[in-house]
Every structure is written in structure tokens, then in C-alpha cells.
Amino acid sequence: MKIDRAAVYEKYDGHCAYCGRKIEYKDMQVDHMIPQVTFYEKVEIGDVNDMSNLMPACRQCNHYKRANSIEIFRKMISEIPKKLDRDSYIYRVGEIYGFYDSRPKDVTFYYEAAEYEGDV
């Protein structure tokens, strides 16, 4: 089955399904929300290219998610603050100016809050 890239792009009105940033059509990557094969096991979901499983993604989110499940991706995103070098001088200056909020927070992906009228 050929993927209808335009339909995937319009699914969330040209936004990345994960971070919610507006993306240009030419920059959109099509992500399989539930990958057919993960790093750990083969997943049986039927047609991996079904529109309900195809998500518009920016390059950064698609690259970072890779072949992980959505819950593993959510965990990866929530752990980013732990990976920042809080001892660096630049980070501490940024904290003083309020650039960073390193409190734990729940990760809600854009598609979970956005309305999608398709067959999901």
C-alpha cells in the first residue's frame, strides 16, 4: 500500500503529532506510531501502514523516537531534564533568567490533545 503523505500531513493540520510544532510539508517525516518491529520484539498490529498508525513528525521527534513504542518514547522525553548538565556555567545563567523549568512534568503528545476526524 502506498502511503498518502498529504493525508498524513493534514492529519494534524501540518503539525508534528508529538511536539506540536508546525512543520513544512517538505520537511515532514511519516512515523509509524506503533512500529512493526521494535528494538526488542516484532509487533503484530495488522497493516502497519494504516492511516491510524501513521503520524506526521518533525525530523527531531522521528529521529529521537526511532523504533520505540509510544510509551517508551514518552519516558525518553520525560527523562531529558536528567540528561542536562546542570553544573555548567551556561545552564546556571539560563536558570537565573528563567529559561529552564526542570520540575518533573507529565508528557502529553500533541496528537493526544488535538482533534483528529479520521478513522482512529
Q: Could you characterize the architecture of this molecule?
A:
By secondary structure, this protein is mainly alpha-helical. It is built from 6 helices and 2 strands, in the order αββααααα. A two-stranded antiparallel ribbon has the order 1-2. The longest helix is centred in the middle third of the chain and has 9 residues, at 70-78.
What brief labels describe this structure?
120 residues; mainly alpha; two-stranded antiparallel ribbon; 6 helices
Largest sheet, spatial ordering of strands: 1-2
| CA-atom Rg in angstroms | 17 Å
Distance between the termini: 18 Å
The major sheet is characterized as: 2 strands, antiparallel
Uncertain regions spanning at least 5 consecutive residues: none
Quick structural overview:
The protein is mainly alpha-helical.
Give the topology, please.
Blueprint: H1 5-10, E1 29-32, E2 54-57, H2 59-65, H3 70-78, H4 80-83, H5 89-96, H6 110-113
Antiparallel strand pairs: 1-2
